[in-house]
């Protein structure tokens, strides 16, 4: 997450996305083998419609009353949770869990939670992200010392100011964390209602003014390293949904990916149930997202067709093409791009993280059962995801692909 130059990346319906299926079957272990590509085309297909199609296409010829199909929650075996405000110590950091709670609390199989992290200078990403994601977001906010005040002011601004503020109130839950040596002077105790302990939003200011973006932060003044993986782990662990997309907040998924993904998973599990699959467990699988960067001031692609056109005109490039091309070099990327856009999500290719793809750092939809990120690593040290990926994704682990884009211009 670099602010010296604004970057534009997002998770789009045409890009390749790594989505993990660790929790689809109770026997899956936290290691992955192989890579399966999922083609994402025009999204937004209604999940209920998907279920109806599955039911009608597989309905028995018998006139006997059909047995109601199992819900996704039943097939996953997940349990609904409740977000509760509390605090705790995590190594050398204090964490305020669920300090600002979203109005909507999804059931475990109702959606996919986008889990992310940042400080108060990254909150401007939330509205454009939510316009595409349209689902729950869990964000860990790093707010040491005096950075606490602008962080709260910025959060209240995005929750109450502007025509899309309702999206933030409805969908985003904020956690806070800071070093034990840099505790804010005053931290109000969370109110029972989840919001009355917060300061009033000042909508006469811009978000940049509310967040104090022109001022030197406490973090910079005191040369505090950014503990990125603490934030990643907190956000993922506190998600209420079974499936999570652990991502940097500047990456925007393609519109409609949540219902399409859940529909695809539900259909897969129904097929397994009807086939009464009893064979030995297969290796865990992940669904990765391919990431692309678009030029500053360019419109974000809404689907694969638009993405392909932007790649052809050089208005978009693969993520980190000029920084670390091997880190996001996706198997069969060219073959996937050559395919015409189609409806929904489909398995395109099964691949593996081997050979020239060994250093691939996929962002994917997974579950909370995966290994945690190594909290000893900082953002400034980079390679902050590599130990988690090395533990979680072995060379034989399975991937299934979707796609995504990054915000505000690419690095050269």
TrEMBL record:
It comes from the Eukaryota. Pfam families: Glyco_transf_49 (PF13896). PANTHER family: FI01434P-RELATED. This is N-acetyllactosaminide beta-1,3-N-acetylglucosaminyltransferase. It comes from Cloeon dipterum.
């Amino acid at each position: 997450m670099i602010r010296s130059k604004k970057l534009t990346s997002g998770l789009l319906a045409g890009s390749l996305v790594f989505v993990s299926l660790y929790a689809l079957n109770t026997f899956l272990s936290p290691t992955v083998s192989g890579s399966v590509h999922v083609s994402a085309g025009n999204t937004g297909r209604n999940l209920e419609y998907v279920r109806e199609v599955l039911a009608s296409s597989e309905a028995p010829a018998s006139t006997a009353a059909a047995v109601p199909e199992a819900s996704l929650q039943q097939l996953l075996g997940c349990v609904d949770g409740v977000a509760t405000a509390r605090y705790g110590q995590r190594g050398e950091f204090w964490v305020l869990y669920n300090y600002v709670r979203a109005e909507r609390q999804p059931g475990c199989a109702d959606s996919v939670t986008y889990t992310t992290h940042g400080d108060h200078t990254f909150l401007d990403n939330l509205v454009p992200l939510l316009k595409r994601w349209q689902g729950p977001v869990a964000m860990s906010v790093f707010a040491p010392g005096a950075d606490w005040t602008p962080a709260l002011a910025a959060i209240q601004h995005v929750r109450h100011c502007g025509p899309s503020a309702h999206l933030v109130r409805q969908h985003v839950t904020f956690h806070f964390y800071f070093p034990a040596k840099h505790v804010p002077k005053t931290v109000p105790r969370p109110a029972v209602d989840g919001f009355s302990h917060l300061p009033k939003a000042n909508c006469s200011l811009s978000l940049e003014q509310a967040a104090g973006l022109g001022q030197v932060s406490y973090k910079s003044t005191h040369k505090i390293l950014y503990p990125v993986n603490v934030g990643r782990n907190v956000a993922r662990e506190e998600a209420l949904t079974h499936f999570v997309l652990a991502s940097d907040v500047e990456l925007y998924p393609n519109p409609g990916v949540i219902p399409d993904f859940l529909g695809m998973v539900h259909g897969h599990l129904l097929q397994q149930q009807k086939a009464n699959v009893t064979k030995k467990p297969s290796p865990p699988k992940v669904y990765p997202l391919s990431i692309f960067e678009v030029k500053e001031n360019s419109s974000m692609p809404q689907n694969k067709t638009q993405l392909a056109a932007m790649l052809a005109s050089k208005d978009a490039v693969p993520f980190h093409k000029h920084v670390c091309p091997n880190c996001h070099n996706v198997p069969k990327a060219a073959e996937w791009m050559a395919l015409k856009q189609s409806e929904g999500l489909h398995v395109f290719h099964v691949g593996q993280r081997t050979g020239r793809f060994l250093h691939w750092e996929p962002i994917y939809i997974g579950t909370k059962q995966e290994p945690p990120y190594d909290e000893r690593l900082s953002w400034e040290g980079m390679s902050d995801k590599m130990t988690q990926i090395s533990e979680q994704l072995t060379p034989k682990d399975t991937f299934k692909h979707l796609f995504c884009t990054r915000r505000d211009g690419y690095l050269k």
